[in-house]
Amino acid sequence: ENDRLVTSTAVHIGIAVDSAAGLLVPVLRDVLPMSLKTLSARARDLIERARLGKLAASELSGGTFTVTSLGALGIDAFTPIINYPECAILGIGRIRRCPAVVADQIVIRDQVTLSLTFDHRITDGAPAARFLQTLAELVAKAGEIFGEEGG
After folding, report:
1. Catalytic (active-site) positions
2. pLDDT tens per residue across span 67-108
3. Which of 26, 64, 92, 133 has the fewest CB within 10 Å, making it most exposed?
4. Mean pLDDT for each consecutive 10-residue tract of the chain (151 residues)?
5. Which of 44-51's residues contact partners 24+ apart within 8 Å by CB, and which partners?
6. pTM tops 0.85, yes or no
């Protein structure tokens, strides 16, 4: 605002949605205290209402970070563009079954490419890389929990 960075203590996640009206980015507000189950249910609701054209204008602004995926279109990697005035956007490519080395053995694993575009006025490359590293570790742990060793 007025040529200065304004930080937020809350995290509001925008979700890029392809709709008949074009690209919409409804916002999940205050996601930090949410469980994964609650977050997922609210995201599904927002996505469905975006596609049906039933969002309030207030649900389309105020994001601090956006998540977008082109995986359903067969895209492995891409460079997403930040939605001003947000700090970053995470691009998710398609999930592919690929050979991977686990404990010195070649096994088949689901793999996905993540792309992070971030505002260098807010953070440098190393913290952004650590964010992606942590995200990859959490995805791998989730895979272990839900039956995919190594994610």
Report:
1. 120, 124
2. 999 999 999 999 999 988 899 999 999 999 999 998 999 999
3. 133
4. 83 95 95 92 96 95 95 95 92 95 93 93 93 91 64 42
5. 46/15, 46/17, 47/15, 47/17, 50/17, 50/19, 50/24, 50/26, 51/17, 51/19, 51/20
6. yes
